[in-house]
Amino acid sequence: MFRMTVLAGMVIAWLIVLCIDYQAVGTWSNPGPGFFPLLVWIALAVSTVGALFSNKNK
Amino acid sequence: MTVDISLLVLFTVVGSFVGTIIGMLPGLGSAATLAILLPLIIQVPPLYSIPIMAAIYYGSQYGGSTTSILFKIPGEISGAVICTDGHLLYQQGRAYQALKIAAYGSFFAGIITTAVIYGLSHLLLPFVTFFGPSELFVLSVIGLGLSTVGMGYNKWLVVASASAGMLLSFVGINDVSGALRYSFEITYLYDGLSLAIIIAGLFGGAEVLNRILNNTAPLIKINKLDISSEPLSRDEKKSCAKSIGRGTVTGAVVGLIPGGGALLASVFAYALEKIFVPGVGTGKLEAVAGPESANNAAAQSGFVPLFVLGIPENVILSMIFGIMMFHGIPIGYGFLDGGWLYVVLLSMLLGNAILLILNLPLIRFFLHIYQIPDRVINILIVAVLVVGIYSIHQQIADVVVLIGSSLVGLALKKADIPILPMVMGFVLGPYVEDRFVKSMLISNGDAGVFLDTAVFQLATAVMILVLVVKIWKKIKTTWV
Description:
The complex is a heterodimer. Chain A is an all-alpha fold. Chain A contains two helices and no strands. In chain A, helix 1 runs antiparallel to helix 2 (35-53). The longest helix of chain A is centred in the first third of the chain and has 19 residues, at 2-20. The model of chain A has no long low-confidence stretch (mean pLDDT 89). Chain B is mostly helical. Chain B has helices spanning 5-24, 30-41, 46-71, 83-91, 95-124, 133-149, 155-169, 195-214, 234-254, 261-276, 286-301, 303-309, 315-327, 333-337, 340-359, 363-366, 374-393, 396-414, 420-442, 454-479, and strands spanning 172-173, 180-181. In chain B, strand 1 (172-173) and strand 2 (180-181) form a beta hairpin. In chain B, helix 6 packs parallel to helix 20 (454-479). Chain B is globular, with a radius of gyration of 22 Å. Chain B starts with a helix and ends with a helix.
């Protein structure tokens, strides 16, 4: 439970940071300064959901 | 480039000394200690920063064997492999022989691997031109994943931790676009979060807070220690020499593989000794000689991919990479042609010789560290951390960030979320992004450019092979 709170906290905190200090995302052929951080945030969010449904403890 | 040999010797001696002590202290790993010392190391002149960090790293491998042999408690995780045979030798009254063979094995492996680093770096250098941004991006991501795979963590947690670390590294001015990101117009954040402070907090600060809260340090008594110096027999010398040779080769090869590292190398070497030497597990010198040589060889050969391609294979090498980038030390041709490699290799030769002296004649002196109460060590660590951080820019804000990152690290530790990937993500974040953006610009937005790289195809082939072997094993156990 504590683990999921920490993970969810990181996801939400970074979502707020990405929204407040918005950086242009751009396109695949011309990525803006917000492109890669957005991809990494998606990886963080997806892996948090993955960890939620994963039953392996460690 | 002018090298002051006396300074090089000084920093190598300090690194070897600190590394040996760290290796001997159970519970405080070399990664956490490097993190604690990072604020001080960052102030060392660039030329001597890699030698001191490297000496701490391989010095801890030397020292780690001492606690494994004498107390059956591995100071370093890679020393766990020799606990059984090493401690049995101690119980048989052959502790000094075991320590001696461990030190000689580590020394031999260290010297040979130094030559391997020189040879392989030059051999691999012509291939550097085949590695464009997309290849380096794939290699960095694979390296990041593989470096944590052996620790048995949940893969989702590894990805989450690495992603969170990367996001932290994006704060400040972006090198590619020049944009000021996620700094909320706070001047302190314009240059980004300091590598030394964040790593020292996440890793070192969290570790010391955990030690203070849990008070988990094992109680070690040295009053029963008996170290005799009976010489090895001719047959034992011959057999141990073979084990050292096997261990060195195993370690040098395993160290080159991303995620390989000292632990895996010593596990492989121990398995090899089981095949070649009967009676391993009952107190055999060979079972100490092989794994000890292997872990030291692996600790050093891991530097090859770092120097040639800028790919750190584990968290310690990623900290060294971070320091290299901080000081603008080049990688690839620049590192080899600029004379950096020779300074590092010279320091490795020196360091291994110094460690031999530290770990044999001075072993009795080092054993006194077990008499220092744990709370004194904790206070010392906190003092080093705070003074080290404050001395970088002389501002309290750095100490506040240190406390904040230490608390975050402690929360991650309590939640059982691995911190290693976060540290690696934080160090590698800007370079992974740089390589990604360049790949996208070159390929005109074709994300398939990563799938076309030989590195990706090779990794896919290996994964398929591993999968096939696993399925075959499952079928065999179910049906046969």
